[in-house]
DNA sequence: TAGATTGTTAATCGATTAACAATC
DNA sequence: TAGATTGTTAATCGATTAACAATC
């Protein structure tokens, strides 16, 4: 356990499992991988392999215990405790991220935000204080923050990335379309809106072509 | 061409190519797949295969013509014309999407938005009129919209999805964490924040463990 | 010509699925 | 016991990479 790199597809399946399990009729004690697979349109062996990765296993003829499966999934996904994060950029997107109540459920807590717009510096959004960007390095260091979220315009993304890393951040979640340069030991999750739009419109085009 | 299903990884690479090409020093006429691969940390054969998919090809010893490559990429990604979309839900996320100026660059134009909050219905954000949700079916039909963006809370996501489909929408971009049920002929791009957070925090954990 | 580069064919790798034995 | 279900081993599939011939 623990060291294999895990694909983004697997994470998506794991979050689907936990969502599905939590929506099961109350009182459901056990569930089979076959049943999960059927509900979610997946292959049953794949579900079993995924579950083997995160849980102690099920019982033949009975299936998996729902409650412990939920706990195992939550533990594996990191929903059982918080990681604290700094947000850089409190424009429309930054505000949306600050207000997104589900992050706490997913084990992520934005504890401080930075921006240079004098209209919002000093204010709070959703209980999070907005500070000027020149405090970023110092504060990330002092708060020992390891996660930085970049929601600034393209033009300042690299600068902000550098500051976050200088402040000791080790993981970057980048919402700007800018490709970032950073040292090997930093991990990046790139949120790629351009690719999403392209995928959506191309899937649509192909789906319409097929129909015609 | 045209009918093979294209993986999300490929779309991400294609958008990286176009970004890279556009940032090349002005006056750069040709570029080799090898050079692109080197800059982006990819395999050169992979770059060549990707480019073969979208362009007429390059010349040995010379490489590819940058300007036509950019045009080919833009065409393939759908950046050369608009697809019009309806947005459902103008909360913080919806507002961020409405204000995201890059969508137009990516060939997506939100032309109408729906919400039930009386404080914002009737107003405009970024030139887009916000209408009450009960007009959704009718307006999507009349405007012949094929793309619907769901940015409503989990609890109303399925209802909104149904209305969009009733209004003739064929492609759904879902930002709510709710898994949606819909007919076979509808395409879906699910934006999965929970999976992104899990991936980010787990990558961080593994990166820190490795270091220790 | 020599060498950089393309494009194709073959090999590898990883992820998914099928087949099947184990077990409650 | 019989049958549903797990978990493992083997086969398949798709994507990536390596090897190499073609070409400007």
Please explain how this structure is put together.
- Two copies of one chain form a homodimer.
- Chain A has 212 residues and is α/β, with parallel strands linked by helices.
- In chain A, 46% of the residues lie in helices and 17% in strands.
- The first copy, chain A, has nine helices and nine strands.
- Chain A has a seven-stranded mixed beta sheet with strand order 5-6-4-3-7-8-9.
- In chain A, 36% of the residues are buried.
- The structure holds a DNA duplex (24 and 24 nucleotides).
What is the compact description of this entry?
Chain A is built from 9 helices and 9 strands. Chain A has about 210 residues and is an alpha/beta fold. In chain A, strand 7, helix 8 (about 155-165) and strand 8 (about 170-175) form a beta-alpha-beta unit.
Q: Multimeric state of these chains?
A: homodimer
**Biggest sheet, spatial arrangement of strands of chain A:** 5-6-4-3-7-8-9
Helix content of chain A: 40-55%
Largest interface: A-B, 64 and 64 residues
Features of this protein?
7-stranded mixed sheet, 212 residues, two-stranded antiparallel sheet, homodimer, DNA-binding
List the helices and strands and how they pair.
The structure is a homodimer of 212-residue chains.
Chain A: H1 8-22, E1 30-31, H2 33-40, H3 44-54, E2 64-65, H4 66-77, E3 83-88, H5 92-99, H6 102-105, E4 108-114, E5 124-125, E6 128-131, H7 136-143, E7 147-150, H8 154-166, E8 171-174, E9 187-190, H9 193-211
Parallel strand pairs in A: 3-4, 3-7, 4-6, 7-8, 8-9
Antiparallel strand pairs in A: 1-2, 5-6
Helix pairs in contact in A: 1-4, 2-3, 7-8
Chain A binds a DNA duplex (24 and 24 nucleotides) through helix 3.
């Amino acid at each position: 356990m623990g060291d294999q790199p895990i694909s983004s597809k697997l994470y998506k399946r794991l979050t689907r499992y936990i969502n599905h399990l939590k929506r099961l009729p109350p009182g459901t004690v056990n569930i089979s991988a076959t049943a999960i697979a059927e509900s979610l349109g997946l292959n049953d062996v794949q579900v079993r392999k995924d579950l083997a990765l995160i849980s102690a296993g099920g019982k033949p003829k009975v299936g998996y215990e729902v409650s412990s499966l939920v706990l195992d999934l939550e533990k594996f996904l990191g929903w059982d405790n918080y990681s604290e994060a700094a947000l850089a950029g409190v424009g429309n997107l930054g505000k949306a991220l600050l207000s997104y109540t589900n992050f706490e459920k997913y084990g992520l807590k934005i504890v401080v935000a930075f921006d240079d717009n004098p209209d919002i510096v000093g204010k709070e959004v959703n209980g999070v204080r907005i500070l000027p960007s020149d405090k970023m390095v110092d504060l990330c260091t002092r708060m020992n923050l390891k996660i930085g979220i970049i929601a600034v315009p393209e033009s300042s993304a690299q600068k902000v990335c550098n500051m976050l890393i200088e402040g000791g951040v080790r993981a970057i979640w980048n919402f700007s379309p800018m490709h970032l340069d950073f040292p090997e030991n930093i991990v990046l999750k790139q949120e790629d809106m351009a690719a999403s739009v392209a995928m959506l419109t191309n899937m649509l085009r192909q789906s319409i072509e097929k129909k015609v």
